[in-house]
Amino acid sequence: MAQQMQTSRSSLERLLDPDNPAVTLDTIERAARVIGKKVRFELVD
């Protein structure tokens, strides 16, 4: 997966770490594309 995202394994491990709040939207989007998904953010009341 890291190779498909064109990132390092350590970056992927940080992405998958639930205790890491410093994940960017760009990284989440790239990860989603690798697994054939899209990301949708929605603000609701």
What would you say this structure looks like, in words?
There is one protein chain. The mean pLDDT is 90. The chain has one domain. By secondary structure, it is mainly α. It is flat. It has helices at 2-5, 9-16, 25-34.
Shape: flat
Strand content: under 5%
Low-confidence stretches: none
Largest sheet: none
Q: Which oligomeric form is depicted?
A: single chain
Percent of residues in helices: 40-55%
Order of helices and strands: HHH
What is the count of helical runs?
Answer: 3
The number of domains is 1
What value does the average pLDDT take? 90
Structural class based on helices, strands and sheet pairing: mainly alpha
Radius of gyration: 11 Å
Alpha-carbon distance between the termini? 35 Å
Organism: Dulcicalothrix desertica PCC 7102
Protein name: HTH cro/C1-type domain-containing protein
Quick summary of this structure?
This protein has 45 residues and is an all-alpha fold. It has three helices and no strands.
Descriptive tags:
single chain; 45 residues; mainly alpha; 3 helices; 0% strand; HTH cro/C1-type domain-containing protein
Helix and strand topology:
Layout: H1 2-5, H2 9-16, H3 25-34
